Amino acid sequence: MQTFTVDPRRWWIGRLFGRNPLLRRSDRIEVLATLAALVVALVGIAGAGAVGTAIHDAERRADADLARTRHPVSATVVEAGAVTAFDGTRIPVVRARWSTATGPHTDAFPWDKKAVPGERIQIWVDNRGDHVGSPIPLRPAMDAFTAAAAIVLLTITLLASGLALLRRGFHRARDAQWDREIRGLANDGGGRANGATPGKSP
After folding, report:
1. At the top level of CATH, which class does the domain 71-132 belong to?
2. 0.90 exceeded by the pTM?
3. Average per-residue pLDDT in the chain?
């Protein structure tokens, strides 16, 4: 019957406190760097959640403010035409009339739909009854998730890239050190192969 032994010193994190003579300083530094990256990643995830919550709350408040300060009304088209922009583009505009609690209003504004005099159109006005642009629909949940996911992805990418560069440097240093030690064993400091004696084949 085969038995299994659980030895924490054999775990990956055990390199930090292990006494194995094969463990190098770079091994311990690599473990510390990885642990630091994990801590930073956890902090980044928590920060991303806080940012996402802030964005969600801000957009919910903006939606509530728009609902209080803007509302649609029905207006009657008085004139329909177009104006020429500085770049030569023709922009369709209408002049319309509408009434609110603050009194009658008349204004001209761009209108990207076909309209004819006498037609009823729906526009947005503020609390004073003045024409304003139609509100852009906000997506608090989606915007919050997108921002949080972007922060998490950026944090993980930067940490992974930093760890990859660190490990690559350590691996190169280890390989170079092993090469020096192997050459030292082979040459034994005197140009002889290990275990060989002058004048005899090894």
Report:
1. mainly beta
2. no
3. 79
